[in-house]
Amino acid sequence: FLAVPSEGPPAGNAPGWACEGPGASDKNRRVCHAVARLEMGNLWEEFNRLGTEMIVTKAGRRMFPTFQVKLSGLDPLADYVLLMDFVPLDDKRYRYAFHSSSWLVAGRADPAAPGRVHFHPDSPAKGAQWMRQIVSFDKLKLTNNLLDDNGHIILNSMHRYQPRFHVVLVDPRRDSERFAHQNFKSFSFPETQFMAVTAYQNHRITQLKIASNPFAKGFRDGEPEPWCGATLSLSQATTQDKGFSAPHFQPLPYPPHSVYVGAKPRASPYPLPALQPDGFGYGQQ
């Protein structure tokens, strides 16, 4: 594990901490000591034990649990861009067997959806700002619309995915492209793996999402949601956006040379590593 002494992860393979991966030793000193701790780790673990499912829709649906991390080990005065991407866990497509309450392989995976990354809308920002509070990717949305032009993350339904989180140093040097592979650090938390679905298959996932999602209060109380005019289906309840519309995209000032910054996901300008299967237990890269 890489960690500052006061916030280091516990010994052993503890949930909620991303362990050190290969290649970490040759990273820039401003990123090599970065540590990410997954927030709501117990809730993620509870979902993971049941087999987490995430709804994907044509219009885009937010994740629940929301992906949130607490960062430490950054250079307080350096600028960083934070982003996420999603990689397939395998080359299979699945179906849910209701009689056995389990997922079964249904064939080869569909052609890969267009790869996109989601930039945290506060990027770029100083390390001190990122470490001051929990970093939340609550604006990120998942879609199954291959023609999506809203910048949402495109996933195939009935496929398994691993979210990845990346800390990218904004290198002020003119020849920063030469050092691109040294200027980022990636984190994967195995407990955040999920199956993309258009409707929840496991009724226990539906119940847990209703019980733990604050936006599903109306379903727990037997009352309709106050912010919508009609009762939602169970598959819609757990990630209701509460009527909030996505903010109009405004590029941030002083974009560094050759680096895209902003809130909308785009194809990554960074050489993010390919995820290599390793028993589905992935660490930092």
TrEMBL record:
Organism the protein comes from: Bambusicola thoracicus
Domain of life: Eukaryota
CDD domains membership: T-box_TBX1_10-like
Domain T-box as annotated: residue spans: 38-221
Endpoints of the signal sequence: none
Name used for this protein in its record: T-box domain-containing protein
GO molecular-function terms, A-Z: DNA-binding transcription factor activity, RNA polymerase II-specific; RNA polymerase II cis-regulatory region sequence-specific DNA binding
Gene3D superfamilies attached to this UniProt entry: Transcription factor, T-box
Residue ranges of the region described as Disordered: 1-26
Location (main, coarse): nucleus
Keyword DNA-binding: yes
Alphabetically ordered keywords of this record: DNA-binding, Nucleus, Transcription, Transcription regulation
